[in-house]
Amino acid sequence: MRSIMDRRNFLKAMGAGTLALAAPGCMDGAGPLTGRRTRKQPNFVIIFCDDLGYGDLGCFGHPTIRTPNLDKMAAEGQRWTNFYVGASVCTPSRAALLTGRLPIRSGMCSDRRRVLFPDSAGGLPQDEITIPEALRPQGYATACIGKWHLGHLPQYLPTNNGFDYYFGIPYSNDMDRVGGEGRNAFWKPKIEYWNVPLMRNEHIIERPANQNTITKRYTEEAVRFIIKNRHRPFFLYLAHNLPHVPLFVSDKFRDKSLRGLYGDVVEEIDSGVGLILKALRRAGLADNTFVVFTSDNGPWLTFNEHGGSAGLLREGKGCTFEGGMREPTIFWWPRKIKPGLVSDMGATMDLFTTILTLAGAEVPSDRVIDGLDLSPVMFGAGPSPREVMFYYRGAQLYAARKGPYKAHLITKPAYGKGKAVHHDPPLLYHLGHDPSEKHDISEQNPEIIADILQEIVRHLEKLEPGEDQLAKRIKKA
Ligand code: MG
What we know:
With 477 residues, the chain is α/β, with parallel strands linked by helices. The protein has helices at 7-21, 68-76, 90-99, 103-106, 131-135, 184-187, 214-228, 260-282, 322-325, 348-359, 375-378, 446-461, and strands at residues 43-49, 78-80, 83-84, 141-146, 165-168, 198-200, 203-206, 234-239, 289-295, 329-332, 340-342, 346-347, 388-393, 396-402, 405-411, 421-430. 54% of the residues are buried.
């Protein structure tokens, strides 16, 4: 059953609140109606990679990929080592980030199809509230640059989900395949093998998209948006299509990395991060902008050298072992965030709640929001409120973590490999002592398992799954 208050009512309510706030005497002379910045409104930038592994950055231990800009960003900010995504594949992970909710609630996950495809008829339901939809009534300019993958039909596009502006490929860069032979096409990828569209707002402006220059162009678009909106608060969601296979890179970075083409791609993304932070500094916005860097899911391990690495974490994309869902995450906000290493838990869903709170927007109360406010950790005021994490594969709960302990009810290896195995009693790992999930300690700890099972029961009892959006297909004429 859907929540009582739909998105339109929420936005109406937010708009009314905004009008009241903007009345004379209630604000510092600028605000939502004028689109200028009120004193305390920070900007937000989320840089979201595709299939980047936990171990793929210099500052997360990669021995040969050089990421000086991200390393510096991490040194100036916070490096989160227990930061999760809401699902281990693209579509549900993105839905979780933008709505602050487990994808099972919005119907953006499925046991029938794992992500949306070019023949999909579904997308992010209209009654979901996205970060930009909540920020826009607060006077924020909003842009989505890059991969969308929450529905490519007009009603589902970013411009219908709270974003003023969209520039990017609306789904994965390996879709619309029209050429090349089998997997060989990936080892020497050519632009013409994947007929993916590049869109500006609702229009296709290039097809196939020239993927060699896509990372560079996304960065340029991001910098342009920042400069253009420097006098008003903004939310920028930059979702790179790479390093998802097929790998493409611009000439400047080709054959430069010690890690081959995959390293070239990550090093180009790193360079782009450097340009974005530089633009923020030059525009005088660094001290007022919260920047997050992370990835949508773990590395696609079956693509050999073209897939990334989860470092010491087990498995990768598509599964509920840590390598599938724990991401290399950096928070940056000079002179605001307390720099350091954070081993507390956090999740992309928490960005929803954290950002809305920092912006002075109301966190919706008419529905279950899974996100929690991470600002105590950011500002050094206290521990993370996140103590529990649920791991779904498709629409099924496979595992749960509470504190350092993680119990697996079901396991299945990474995307494209192996069968599901049910565990009774569940497998139990201490992720502090055993981050690689190698040593099952279930036998010695029945009371810990019982406690986690109670959390699971409480969670499932109240769960109302949304209608499956991923199974819907466009009817053939
Ligand atoms: Mg992905």
